[in-house]
Amino acid sequence: MTKKTNAVLVIGACGQLGSELTLELRKLYGDAHVVAADIQYPKQAELRESGPFEIVDVLTPQHLSELATRYKFKQIYHLAAILSATGEKNPKFAWRLNMDGLFNVLDFALEQKVERVYWPSSIAVFGPNTPRQNTPQDTIMDPNTVYGISKQAGERWCEYYFNKYGLDVRSLRYPGLIGYKALPGGGTTDYAVDIYHQALATGTYKCFLSEHTRLPMMYMPDAIKATLDLMHAPAEQVKVRSSYNLAAMSFTPQEIATSIQRHYPSFAITYDPDSRQQIADSWPQSIDDLAARQDWGWRPQYDLDTMTDDMLLHLKRINN
Ligand code: AKB
């Protein structure tokens, strides 16, 4: 059997980021060259129909080796993870999936001589003793969620594989990501996606975080752009080999509601904080991403109001 060469593998392709990133990668490299992989078949027709799809459980290394009989990968995006809120429900499993999954992918990439690997980190690597305003690239990191601990450990391992084995792994510490194409799964920042859906569906939203909880956030087109810009940067410009701080905007539930009210003045928000409040309270309110700006030219394009305008426009179109 002849192998398809120069392929790009996206693991976790059905997730919030994966479903959008896969389609962008297919535009860039050609549909047939970007292999979407996940533990379940995609619900999104465009993702299912536009290119190859493979069932892969990152905890089963044989799934990866089997893929290597059919494809020669030049890049891997390993996005599969259990997020902050879900992780707290089953911490041991979250640790196993987030860590063993990463090891399986890093080892596979080494074995297969993959040129470049992308792995997402998160603002969850920071904790209650981290400075919360303009959190620096290098600072105290004392995460207190299993997700945050796994991301912090993962960052150390990515840097280790780079220093020790020369594997070109690149990473970003995403803030909360907001997009209209797919729903997030099990994060503390998920309210900032749900609120737009509920604004259109019911005109009201009960928020699981309190009114003044400020968190760093980013609109999906900016997250995709940052990811691709980092992956396309010449290796010598990528000076941080753990993970780069990345910022676009910070807002509170009250401020996003006010932004929505510019379109729907009667939109009403209420607050009923749950266990996710404690997680949010341990995270930064704003992020200093100077290193990303200086090293490979990062600049975000969306702020809260331009994101709201775009989200509502697209969601209205999808609903009609
Ligand atoms: C979460 O809320 O768990 C994620 C994240 C900030 O990494 N969105």
Report what the structure shows.
The longest helix has 21 residues. The chain is of the alpha/beta class. 2-amino-3-ketobutyric acid (AKB) binds next to loops.
Shape: globular
Class by alpha and beta content: alpha/beta
> What is the typical, i.e. mean, pLDDT?
97
CATH level-two architecture of the largest domain: 3-Layer(aba) Sandwich
CATH fold field value of the largest domain:
Rossmann fold
Task: Catalogue the unreliable spans.
Answer: none
C-alpha Rg (nearest Å): 19 Å
Gist?
The chain is an alpha/beta fold and 320 residues long. The protein has twelve helices and 14 strands. Helix 1 links the parallel strand 1 and strand 2 (34-38).
Secondary structure elements and pairings:
Layout: E1 4-11, H1 16-29, E2 34-38, H2 45-49, E3 53-55, H3 61-68, E4 71-78, H4 84-87, H5 91-111, E5 116-118, E6 121-122, H6 146-165, E7 169-170, E8 172-174, E9 176-178, H7 191-201, E10 204-207, E11 215-219, H8 220-232, E12 244-245, E13 249-251, H9 253-261, E14 268-271, H10 276-281, H11 290-296, H12 304-319
Parallel strand pairs: 1-2, 1-4, 2-3, 4-5, 5-7, 6-8, 8-12, 9-11, 10-14
Antiparallel strand pairs: 11-13
Helix pairs in contact: 5-6, 7-9
The chain binds 2-amino-3-ketobutyric acid (AKB).
What key phrases describe this protein's structure?
NAD(P)_epim/dehydratase; NAD-dependent epimerase/dehydratase family protein; Rossmann fold; alpha/beta; three-stranded parallel β-sheet; 320 residues; binds 2-amino-3-ketobutyric acid; globular; UDP-galactose 4-epimerase, domain 1; six-stranded parallel β-sheet
